[in-house]
Amino acid sequence: MTVVAQVTDGETKLRSVNGDTTSGWKTGGMVSLNLSQSSFTNWSAGGLNSIGINGLLSGFANYHKGNSTWDNMLDIGYGLLRQGDNAQFIKTDDKIDFSSKFGQLASKSWYYAAVLNFKTQMTNGYKYPNDSVAISRLFAPAYLIGAIGMDFKPSPKITAFIAPFTSKTTFVLDDDLSNLGAFGVTPAVYDGNLLRTPGQKVRSEFGGYLRVVYNQTFFKDKSVSVLSKLDLFSNYLHNPQNIDVNWESIFSFKVNKYISATITTQLIYDDDIIIKVDRNDDGVVDDADGAGGPRIQFKEILGIGFSYKF
Fold first, then answer.
1. φ, ψ for residue 157 (rounded to 5)?
2. pTM
3. Are 137 and 171 in contact (CB under 8 A)?
4. Domain count, the chain
5. Which residue of 45, 71, 144, 308 is 20 to 30 Å from 258, comparing CA positions?
6. What backbone torsions phi and psi does residue 100 show, to the nearest 5 degrees?
7. pLDDT per residue over 268-294, tens digit each?
8. In the chain, what is the straight-line distance between the N-terminal and C-terminal CA atoms, in Å?
């Protein structure tokens, strides 16, 4: 299976740039498309026919003039996979990720900065092989982070944004999921089978935020690159010792101008997200599986595909 990287590609700065030095704007982007297919006919060793497609549209518009900077990035990714002739397509990637950061030079390596970041998805998500009940939808969840702090840029390879004043808002704009208390919102209250209080659809947190980005290329032709992004958030108002973690890394190996291979990893931990384990291994998570709890989420992706920079 081939999928595209989910790390924010605008941050790599490894794509071509159309610069306008007069206005101070630099814009660019990348389109990536990966296809995979396998077919078996009378194959004695067995196997399933499969087809997969994954795409990514990533763009940025950055402004830098005098002591002011304004960086804007948008990533949209989607992927589908079908295994077996009569099987339906299942989702392998789905994201909308927009971020905007404004900075004003404070000293040699420090900037006063404000960040706005919004993330959500486009279509329903399911816990396969059970595809009858959606566990996520458009704007369920969606995350909005607004932060004010300092941006430390000691070199082009590494930056650290430190924000002691950060607002994190979680949206679950779906009745079924909000009533279940999905993604950390308060669940509904029932009186027998009668709904007494609907589930919370918006959850607000206030705390501290740290974001570290490491970006490095190797060899003269920049054929190998590493980008690692670590986000940490602590809610001052509730269990501040339980830190939310989102750590994404991408290792890129350039084959030629249009073909590249990538290895992507993502680790997530959020104490407010309760995850049940399918202990019966039947594709259904029910009461027999227990109440569940917060767990480390991990994803690894290997992909080879076509990409074009503009």
1. -85, -25
2. 0.81
3. no
4. 1
5. 71
6. -140, 130
7. 898 888 787 766 655 555 544 456 788
8. 27
